[in-house]
From TrEMBL:
Native organism: Prochlorococcus marinus (strain NATL2A)
Task of the protein: Catalyzes the conversion of acetate into acetyl-CoA (AcCoA), an essential intermediate at the junction of anabolic and catabolic pathways. AcsA undergoes a two-step reaction. In the first half reaction, AcsA combines acetate with ATP to form acetyl-adenylate (AcAMP) intermediate. In the second half reaction, it can then transfer the acetyl group from AcAMP to the sulfhydryl group of CoA, forming the product AcCoA.
UniProt keyword terms in alphabetical order: Acetylation, ATP-binding, Ligase, Magnesium, Metal-binding, Nucleotide-binding
Domain AMP-dependent synthetase/ligase: 100-486
Residues binding ATP: 398-400, 422-427, 516, 531, 542
Protein name, per record: Acetyl-coenzyme A synthetase
NCBIfam families registered for this protein in UniProt: Ac_CoA_lig_AcsA (TIGR02188), PRK00174.1 (NF001208)
One GO-annotated biological process of the protein: acetyl-CoA biosynthetic process from acetate
Length: 658
């Protein structure tokens, strides 16, 4: 503990359980021991240019080889693999066509109503080529930004790959965003075309995507948009604007099924993806071609230890970075079979996920803590009705996972036999940065464990100096990596200030600041403690949200918790805990006393919540992250300010207010 250093975040919770990989898993895995991991890390550290250069040459196809691995002469603007020419759609498709992978299933898709499609690599290649030719036929070419506003249908992945093929950067906007959110992103990115659908199915309802596009474009708000390509999904009646709107099946199906991939410079923009940002307008995160390709490819291979017969499923939406890197690009670049599911668990089908696992014999399953906590809340009965024995590896991403949710995931879903990879990363990092390697790393529930080879992560104070073990601080990355974001679209200043100049090391070096707090334990394990914006200051002790929440979730009656600070004359801030009870449990004064006692036992009196608010649900972003900023305003009785367009369910606010 260190309460004198105002830069640090105190760590108050200790987790002692350790789960080494089983011999059975390790012996078959690519990186099969911790010493191999250390060896790779050492190689990457001692000669990074050789490490990344060799990886790029071995793992990707190049039309023209690069001259330089990394150019960091103008930080924070990095150039990776300068002089090289490649194309990610070629790496994901064409290069598999000369082997038996050509006839392997690339994509398995299931719609919410239960309709299904499968594409082999050969078939997917043809579909992508047709879509690429269709885009060209409506005047889209290299450098033109194409926005995608799509349901989870195969055409979403096909459209991304088609854009990449012709060198048109894509900007996927999550299909659950409103027309205003879409409009902001279309204007900011200067999109020339939009690919959408007549609608999508979500929780047994039709989401009217095309109507939202029409609204976004209404009143000439986005003069740069010339055309809209519409996939027919729901057969809902929609308006089609002559000369602007085209049906996908009318202009794609008749195209030639071959299209030469554009030879892209390594640093050409591959896509722009907006992150919400906790306040202010969303940031367009810019990723480039070769570095992103390498990073999504390599991380997928290392972390999921992909095997020839794996059926891999990531439950994210393609509208998020997780969908980009780990539904589409990472798996396809590796020649894996990737599953895409349009639905989510819903009252008419609470076991939807387990049903998909059983039906498609999923072997690797990658989901988010928010989903795991929701399943835990509903109890074991539903998953226990399904055969989940095909699973061999589980992953999580999106938020810190509370140790109890981790244990539940391991026992109930993984049958105690599957390693869990808790993967820490961000839209900005392009791919996973800190994660166990499933055959090599002994895991600790709630810890993302160690940085991947080549990733120089550290925990520092605001002067950029490393803090001691078990002292919390800022999570940073001290060396460029291939998958790093290249800029904020149209806002260099914001790129510098948010990520590279927030911390000021005395030697003026550049380190990437992720916005998260973390600590490293005595064994070197990283524990992400939540966003630093959310840190609570109680009597001079700065506490991360994750640890108090995990203590609450470890109580048998609690499934989910979010803690925030409320201004307090005496203590600086007092702790308000919003908690969700497990199904069947009831809130009463007795519970409050029990929970306080529980937190005091688990952590100590410093972390004892001063007030509890019981709720059915917490305000979350559409990708499932708890929005503590909103809870903070509610707890203090303030107006909710800043951007709330990413809020999943507005009715949660009204419920919480009452
Ligand atoms: C991939 C993704 C990034 C933020 C990140 C952090 C949180 C993601 C996490 C995690 C703890 C993990 N986060 N994975 N925190 N442990 N395994 O989620 O990207 O939407 O940009 O969010 O999510 O706070 O900074 P993105």
């Amino acid at each position: 503990m260190n309460s004198n250093n105002s830069n640090s975040i105190e760590s108050v919770l200790q987790e002692q359980r350790v789960f080494p990989p089983s011999d059975n898993f390790s012996s078959k895995s690519r990186i099969s021991s911790f010493s191999k991991y250390l060896e790779m890390s050492e190689m990457a550290k001692s000669d990074p240019n050789k490490f990344w250069g060799d990886a790029a040459r071995e793992e990707l196809h190049w039309f023209k080889s690069f001259n330089k691995v990394l150019d960091w002469s103008n930080p924070p603007f990095a150039k990776w693999f300068d002089g090289g020419k490649t194309n990610i759609s070629f790496n994901c498709l064409d290069r598999h066509l000369n082997s038996s992978t050509a006839d392997k299933v690339a994509l398995i898709w299931e719609g919410e109503p239960g309709d299904k499609k499968k594409y082999t690599y050969k078939q997917l290649h043809k579909e992508v080529c047709k879509a690429a030719n269709a885009l060209k036929s409506i005047g889209i070419g290299k450098g033109d930004l194409v926005a995608l506003y799509m349901p989870m249908v195969p055409e979403a992945a096909i459209a991304m790959l088609a854009c990449a093929r012709i060198g048109a950067p894509h900007s996927v906007v999550f299909g659950g965003f409103s027309s205003e959110a879409l409009r902001d992103r279309l204007i900011n990115g200067e999109a020339k075309a939009i690919i959408t659908a007549d609608g999508g199915f979500r929780k047994d309802k039709v989401i009217p995507l095309k109507d939202a596009v029409d609204q976004a474009l209404g009143g000439g708000a986005c003069p740069k948009v010339e055309s809209v390509l519409v996939v027919q999904r729901t057969k809902k009646n929609i308006a089609m604007d002559d000369g602007r709107d085209y049906w996908w099946h009318e202009i794609v199906d008749s195209q030639a099924d071959d299209c030469l991939p554009e030879q892209m410079d390594s640093e050409d923009c591959l896509f722009v993806l907006y992150t919400s940002g906790s306040t202010g307008k969303p940031k367009g995160v810019v990723h480039s071609t070769a570095g992103y390709n390498l990073w999504s490819h390599l991380t997928f291979k290392w972390i999921f230890d992909i095997r020839e017969n794996d059926v891999y499923w990531c439950t994210a939406d393609v509208g998020w970075i997780t969908g980009h890197s780990y539904i589409v690009y990472g798996p396809l670049s590796n020649g894996a079979t990737t599953v895409m599911y349009e639905g989510v668990p819903r009252p008419s089908n609470p076991g939807a996920f387990w049903d998909v696992i059983q039906k498609h014999k999923i072997s690797i399953f990658y989901t988010a803590p928010t989903a795991i906590r929701a399943f835990m809340k509903a109890g074991n009965k539903i998953p226990n009705q399904y055969d989940l024995s095909s699973l061999r590896l589980l992953g999580t991403v999106g938020e810190p996972i509370n140790p109890e949710a981790w244990i539940w995931y391991r026992d109930v879903i993984g049958g105690g036999r599957c390693p869990i990879v808790d993967t820490w990363w961000q839209t900005e990092t392009g791919g996973v940065m800190i994660s166990p390697l499933p055959g090599a790393t002994p895991t600790k529930p709630g810890s993302a464990t160690f940085p991947l080879p080549g990733i120089e992560a550290d925990v520092v104070n605001s002067d950029g100096d490393s803090v001691a073990n078990n002292e919390g601080g800022y999570l940073v990355v001290k060396r460029p990596w291939p998958g790093m974001m290249r800029n904020v679209y149209g806002d260099e200043k914001r790129f510098r200030e948010s990520y590279w100049e927030y911390l000021k090391p005395s030697d003026n070096s550049y380190m990437y600041f992720a916005g998260d707090g973390a600590r490293r334990d005595e064994d070197g394990y990283f524990w992400v403690m939540g966003r630093v914006d959310d840190v609570i200051n109680v009597s001079g002790h700065r506490l991360g949200t994750m640890e108090i929440e995990s203590a609450l979730v470890s109580h048998e009656l609690i499934s989910e918790a979010a803690v925030v600070g409320r201004p307090d004359d005496l203590k600086g801030e007092s702790i308000v805990a919003f908690v969700t009870l497990r199904t069947g449990a009831e809130a009463n004064e007795n519970i409050e006393a029990q929970l306080k006692k529980h937190v005091v036992n688990e952590i100590g009196p410093i972390a004892k919540p001063d007030e509890f608010k019981f709720t059915d649900s917490l305000p979350k972003t559409r990708s499932g992250k708890i929005m503590r900023r909103i809870l903070r305003a509610l707890a203090s009785g303030d107006e909710i300010s800043g951007d709330t367009s990413t809020l999943e369910d507005r009715s949660v606010l009204d419920k919480l207010r009452s």
